[in-house]
Amino acid sequence: MRAINHRSVKLGIATFVTVALFCISISHTVEAQNSTLFNPTDSFIISDQNSSIRFATNGSYSSATLQDGTWLFKDLTLYNSTRSNDLKISASNSNVLIYTYSASSPYSQFSRFAIIIFSVEGLGTQEFNLCLNNSQPTHPSEWGVVLPDGTFLAEGKNWQLSTDDTILISGLTGNVTLVHYGFDASEKGDLPFYEEHSVALVTLAVVAITIIISSIINYKVQRSQYGH
């Protein structure tokens, strides 16, 4: 009787594992079927604004639509990113090449952290909305626009933040890093001292990481341009 019970338990576990693996396989298959793949040769043209958007790596999206001069990518996943994110991007009189785009989980402590690194050809304008899905507009102090040499540009110096969290960049060429640091500036003043201090430390760490990543991207781009 005991042997029969053991066999029943083993059979139940095996059945459960088989069903679970089958469900995961179906889920991945459906996700793959619903995704459109792209590669660095694909261009997303904005003909009315004399602009184009490209990605430096392979990737996928569930949908890509152009409306009123803005591309909206749903569930955008790049080869060098582990998470899919939505992205709204527009450009005028310029071509944009995106190297990386990543955002933290919406369930993490710093749920609104996001970073996008790109290069610009042409002295035009670019608009980025990282689709943070905030309950209220962000503050300019939560954002950073960083040049390859580590220079942080203040709002009003080549970039502006709109009320819908769209960043408008103008007059920049070459490599640029746009980052949202993932804390709410409006809440900082209500925190106890040690919590304010911890936020500052995290911010400084993220700033340092941003500079390092931007420098690495710039270095790799320069090597590829000169064929080394």
Protein architecture, described:
- The structure is a single chain.
- The N and C termini lie far apart (72 Å).
- The chain contains two helices and 15 strands.
- It has 228 residues and is an alpha+beta fold.
- The chain has two domains: 1-33; 36-225, no CATH class.
The whole-angstrom Rg is 22 Å
Domain module tally: 2
Low-confidence runs of at least 5 consecutive residues: 9-32, 191-204
Count of separate DSSP helical elements:
2
SSE succession:
HEEEEEEEEEEEEEEEH
Gross morphology is globular
Mean pLDDT: 77
DSSP, total strands: 15
Structural class: alpha+beta
Task: Summarize the SSE layout with pairings.
Layout (H helix, E strand, L loop, with lengths): L1 H32 L2 E3 L5 E3 L4 E5 L3 E3 L1 E5 L2 E9 L6 E8 L2 E9 L9 E9 L3 E5 L13 E4 L5 E2 L5 E3 L5 E4 L3 E8 L11 H33 L3
Parallel strand pairs: 3-8
Antiparallel strand pairs: 1-4, 2-3, 4-6, 5-6, 6-7, 7-10, 8-9, 9-15, 10-14, 11-12, 11-15, 13-14
Question: In summary, what is this structure?
Answer:
The chain has 228 residues and is of the alpha+beta class.
Q: What would the keywords be for this entry?
A:
eight-stranded antiparallel beta sheet, 228 residues, alpha+beta, 2 domains, seven-stranded mixed beta sheet, 35% strand
